[in-house]
TrEMBL record, chains A, B, C, D:
It holds the Pfam family Aldedh. It is an enzyme of class 1 (oxidoreductase). PANTHER family: MALONATE-SEMIALDEHYDE DEHYDROGENASE. GO terms for molecular function: oxidoreductase activity. It comes from the Bacteria. Its EC number is 1.2.1.27. Keywords: NAD, Oxidoreductase. This is methylmalonate-semialdehyde dehydrogenase (CoA acylating). It comes from Halomonas koreensis. The keyword Transit peptide does not apply. InterPro entries: Ald_DH/histidinol_DH (IPR016161), Ald_DH_C (IPR016163), Ald_DH_CS_CYS (IPR016160), Ald_DH_N (IPR016162), Aldehyde_DH_dom (IPR015590), MeMal-semiAld_DH (IPR010061). Residues 15-477 form the Aldehyde dehydrogenase domain.
Length: 496, 496, 496, 496
């Protein structure tokens, strides 16, 4: 059994004094080990990034972008292998991994436009004979800390843009499924990134703290749960860094009485159970407006869920795979049990699902719970499992109040045909990413990803235009040339 | 003697359980008192702002901007009175106050462009039949904490834009010279701002902490010294807020051998001694490249400084006025003494200057110190007085290293006629605001103000385009309409 | 009776060799005369503009904008007088003139943001050590030719932005109602515009041709009818100029079966009859989808039109006033008669309306014609009178085809509550300005005004962001400094 | 000998009723034939483009861009073949063809950013409850007419962006060297462009006129000589189309007395003689300020030119190749003879150069002519050959006046080390593309290419951001939803 190391200054580095086991959630078996970087190893990575910075910052943006063009091609060429590595450690089905990778590649494509995105602002004559311009310069060494649920996509939200902007990068992927991430980084080097521009350290909190405390790290991007996001943001900021920390979610869909219910059920099914609900944009609460809508929704969901298939990652006929660990499986089942105990009605129960031939995999089946109320634990917390809650309300205003009162503000959706309802909802709801008949309103790569309330700490969102701003800092130059200079001289005209 | 109160929900509110004296630094006399708000008073202001938010956010941006158009006109109309109030409590000469106000008004002018600045990004067909747009929405209640040295300009950096973006505002000006600030706020109300949209609380650390800790405050803008900036940033971020905190400076000018020395001396004189050096953009260190440049600089500066006039604020013939307090006077003189003790050469000594008729005023004369070295206390710390240090180096690279090694990175300047030297300097120097033959490279209102290193904490600079981004948050909407709707129906065509 | 002259280089100039009468359409009486400029007078205006250009182009944009801030204030201060002058010569009711002026002032407000709008694009390191930036420079002398129907608004679409961009301007207003336009220009000079920056020549085709043929005129903006627009565009372009020429319209509203019919009728009434229909954005064709919608529409319109009041401009109780000339009155009535003759049904007939006390005024009452078909003359041509046609179709697709088949593509509207229908319509219809439940979708001043098809010739629309682009030209600078220059020299460090 | 056909609707189409010979200028031999399309064939291409438009416009921009990503990869993969085809028909040396292709590929890279470039402007609350957005929609069928001197680069300036914006394209390349252009188009189809999206017709004026007159063609981009540009612009505009027509040039470099003369000579050599001077950005006039500068320049140029190698395209050791035709060779030699006759001094004479083994090739050697004056024919007209003129003046102002007085305003350059001279020049010179120590200031692909004066007709420049604007038209939507709709209904809450 091999032990996964780190990627520092262009080479694989071992630091396996401490290690952690890597599981294949589809079988429940241990499939490998990953070394957990010491502070010294993290500092070595930071030093490599620091050393690579001066030459990289001076590389013309168009030339930096050209490496990303090649990186995109390599990602497409090696997509099968990347998706296999994702599936093996994370458990998501191959088509789902493909989707994740496609979304990640879109971020590479966007970063290819760096020369356009880095344009500064130029003002002639801010005063008589005075010009001023603002330039967006790279920060230096920046760090990314990414979660287990998107081992390819979330790193691709970060490092391509950071690097396109002229920074060098230290990435710490999740220690639960780091293999595909490390592979991506190696492809980036193969595409032509100079050694030290992109470094990967595997590790746990020790590595994170080393990144947060090192004065050479100028900025930190984080995606994970809200408690950790809050910790990262507080500590990075206390250390004077810029930081963006994306946390948890509880994404509601309002189902209006005029909604196209077949469309609702089709799209909710994917949004709630895809990737076992282990997505920060998973749609985990359906808010039915009126009992008629609720009844129709429940009936059709129950019917639709009968054909849902859960199983191992390599079988493309499955709709979704296992959850990430046995402990998480138990936590998810605990939420279902709690809901039942607190009075909700478990309409479809995914606990105890059996996958023949994979009895030790970490499987939870699709679960539908009706008559959930806002005081229940399953409603208040993020379950991160294939569980869809239904809350019933009497009016659209009540549905919106429910959403606005929740701690999180990542994504939300309304199902309606009515233009006015959609506009009212989108304008006022206190959530950062809003869908109108779109249950997973993940912004495309040329917009930016960011929740509101306790789903994001910081003032710039992830990727897209905000990403370019987060990874650069403004420098403003004001220029006036003394006159009476060469231009007006006459001595040169008739040299003796 | 009157006690200045607070401005909450459109009316003057007294909270004078604790007060502090207001001085006239030109005479050294106490001229009034200011009440120091309790936590309850601050919370009252926040509550007023919170209550005013929903209607203000829904007011069309063009209509909000129209109030700022009127505000600009009122500021121009009442400029004399504003400048008198500034001079009386701060000590700056009337022409300097005029300059401060003019710069402040430029920020109001920029905020008048809110409808343009708030434009979101619209993308048709992000997928088949799917549209996406990002909108920049106001945050809610935001707070500004401003310093004594620009009682009009720095508040005008903040609240006009914040308000133009649809936020409501709680401003805590410096407790040393709050009267002009409060007057500005009253003019804003006179211009048509609804009650509660702009509130002013006077106070000290208790008020600041109340703002930092209140969950209703979404964002904090601060300008002041670096230790306080660091405190504010850490505490605001730990509370999950967005924050921009601007701190101290030590702004160097490189004087190249080819510089137009008359231009250098003229412009340095204003940049070093104007406003008694109490500006975060004051040019406090001249770095002469080569002894020949140094000698020429010293000679011409000495001659130029002979005619410098220091005196009370109301006499427009003075070049600059007193410093803010007696304690600060002593601190500045202490730096001069320390420089002398550590081996520097005090070429022109401003200590013990006498202003006839104003013997108790807080005056320090223009001071020039040669042969300063980077280890001296006067070099390492921000003096914030009318003191210009000269450091001698052998090469431009050495001059740049000096600047880059300093803790602060607010402003800097190079004096040269050489295009290559200017470009090299502007590109590489680790400072946020760079002048080429411009010693005070304060960005115009349509660019943004921000230092690097320990001169600014946060990722967006103050005012200008960054201001508009800081005071808004992105919401991204993704929309798809189910087809088979009204449009395709045929039943309506031939009703029975 | 006075004869209106011209405004050249800051002074009133007479050139009245040829004159034309000015009518008061509300009474039908001649109220004055206007001189028609000779080619020499036009060239004098161009020469004045040319002479004023160099200093004006070098005036910092922020300073240029500050004059527009004052201009806005003067327009607001003199609004009553402006509206009286408009009403007297054009005939529109005072509230309508107020609306026109308000829309015009919004364009001045937008132009106040010139420093932001003129920002160029700055790229560091387009190659190693090479920087590039694009700057938007003024063109020089530009000309505007404006129509009778908006004597204040359309000139304000043009010259404030042109001037804010650093150009100088020659304006030729309509010779039918030039007095208010000339007054505006005088207020602009009062606000601080230097002489020669804005010039006004009154005149007819001779003046137009002089502007089109003069090599010093760099660009031409025109608003008027399509045949003239086509002539202007062809001739200006043949002379190598840039040109934008806005022409006629036939704006359709689709009334869907699900529309809120009360809202339809209320808003159509204003959009069809306001300003006697003499607006290029007037809503002149209602396309009812399904006979049920048609019947409801006709019934409610007939009822609503019973209370429509037509009368002289100074009576604010009137809904609309006379048309511009007696000849135009006869033309409008001719279209109504022609419709009747071709088989349409005149539901409400505005011909022969009597306004007591103003029997000689040029009045046509509100007219509603049902069962219009696409082959009728009244449908094919622009009537420019208070006449609303109703066409009946069976489906939304048929309604859209009708619109797309029409020669013009200025504005259009759909009335519906359905999100999908609205999106489909807005996406696909071949019209430049689209309303969803908004019958007069005139873009706000911070967007741009432009029709499609034969409603606009040119590639940039009027006012807003396109205006700023039309009135500037891009200059791109690429800069590399030879190294081995001053910076690397060591000789200066230790001068002998 | 084969006859080159056309590419219509995805297939090669023959129309060889009329043909023209294709030469290999390096040998002077006929190498093939090209069919000259009839009006019917052009109309067939337009019809194919028109038919392909609806589906292509509805293809999401990101998906369109993805085809361009593949196209870029194919261009890189087939670079050798493309450059061989260019060299064979045009004569430029392989390294020069490589440079041309690289520049062309940069435009494809830029067009890959279409999703960002096509973002519209979105404004919430332009009025109460009213939203407005502007969208940039494709035009339909657009045409490009390209010159012989860049058979790969100029087509790549046009069709990738036009297509990325959703238009379909008809390209008419130069009939002198169409083979490489046709090959590019085939690679674009191979990359995945649907049939009909990109069509190529070979032809002469008949084909051009067919494109200009067809009502289905919405816009025309042209690059060529000024007389043709003027003809195209006039005719396209008279037909109501939008048009950008780029014409000729006479690009001057000012050599200031402080210039780094080795750098001047190195860079001028490439800029004047590269591609035999057959570039619209070729540097054809050096303006020496002061006789000292002139003498130094002449001496060093003469020395440098001694090693210039002219010869056949396939030998990479050559500096440049033949001119395009024998007729053109004679024309260039005529200009040299004329200069001599009018009194200029031919310092280095390229007439009658012999290339062993290629005696019939169309070669002119590098030519340097001193003491040229502004009245000489060689100065007034564009030579388009390897001829560098030197004009001597006494001051920088005189040099600038020379440039501003010339009919053309494409590119220009100043050689200096002085910041003030550079800024003054770049700000004021009446030329669209300005170099500071850069003799060929061709803007990078993410800026735009456009001369001033008679070098460009139209208001938007070629490629870059202006390209995206030229190939789209603005549509502005204004939306208000009637309230009292579904949202406020209560009937659905408690269905009976």
């Amino acid at each position: 059994m091999t032990t996964l190391g780190h990627l520092i200054d262009g080479v694989r580095v071992d630091d396996a004094a401490r290690t952690q086991e890597l599981y294949n959630p589809s079988t429940g078996e241990v499939a490998g080990r990953v070394g957990l970087a010491s502070r010294a190893t993290v500092e070595e990575a930071i030093a490599a990034a620091q050393a690579a910075f001066p030459a990289w910052r001076d590389t013309p943006p168009a030339k930096r972008a050209r490496i990303l063009f090649r990186f995109k091609a390599l990602l497409e060429q090696h997509a099968d292998e990347i998706c296999r590595l994702i599936g093996q450690e994370h458990g998501k089905i191959v088509h789902d991994a493909r989707g994740e990778l496609a979304r990640g590649i879109e971020n590479v494509e966007y970063a290819c436009g760096a020369p356009e995105l880095l344009k500064g602002e130029y003002s002639k004559n801010t005063g008589p004979g005075i010009d001023s311009w603002s330039d967006f310069q790279p920060l230096g060494v920046v760090a990314g800390i990414t979660p287990f649920n998107f081992p390819a996509m979330v790193p691709l939200w970060m490092f391509p843009m950071a690097i396109a902007c002229g920074n060098t990068f230290v990435l710490k992927p999740s220690e639960r499924d780091p293999t595909s991430t490390l592979y991506l980084a190696e492809l980036a080097l193969e595409a032509g990134l100079p050694a030290g521009v992109l470094n990967v350290v595997n590790g746990d909190k020790a590595a994170v703290d080393a990144l947060l405390d090192d004065a050479r790290v100028q900025a930190v991007s984080f995606v994970g749960s809200t408690p950790i996001a809050e910790y990262i943001y507080g500590r990075a900021c206390a250390n004077g860094k810029r930081c963006q920390a994306l946390g948890g979610a509880k994404n509601h869909a309002i189902v209006m009485p005029d909604a196209d219910m077949d469309n609702v059920v089709d799209s909710l099914t994917g949004a709630a159970f895809g990737s076992s609900g282990e997505r920060c944009m998973a749609l985990s609460v359906a808010v039915a407006v009126g009992d008629a809508a609720a009844e129709a929704l429940i009936d059709k969901m129950r019917a639709r869920m009968a054909s849902l298939r859960v199983g191992p990652f390599h079988d493309a006929d499955n709709d979704f795979g296992p959850v990430i660990t046995r402990a998480h499986l138990e936590k998810v089942c605990g939420y279902i049990a709690g809901a039942e105990a607190q009075g909700a009605e478990v309409v479809v129960d995914g606990r105890g699902v059996q996958v023949p031939g994979h009895e030790d995999g970490f499987y939870v089946g699709g679960t539908l719970i009706d008559r959930v109320t806002p005081d229940m634990t399953c409603y208040l917390e993020e379950i991160f499992g294939p569980v869809l809650l239904v809350v019933r309300v009497d009016s659209m205003e009540a549905a919106m109040k429910l959403i606005d009162d929740h701690e999180y503000g990542n994504g939300t959706c309304i199902y309606t045909r009515d233009g006015e309802a959609a506009r009212y909802f989108a304008d006022r709801i206190q959530v950062g990413m809003v869908g109108i008949n779109v249950p997973l309103p993940v912004p495309v790569a040329y917009h930016s990803f960011g929740g509101w309330k306790r789903s994001l700490f910081g003032d710039l969102a992830a990727y897209g235009p905000d990403g370019a701003r987060f990874y650069t800092r403004r420098k403003t130059v004001t220029q006036r040339w003394p006159s009476a200079g060469l231009r007006e001289g006459s001595q040169f005209a008739f040299p003796s």
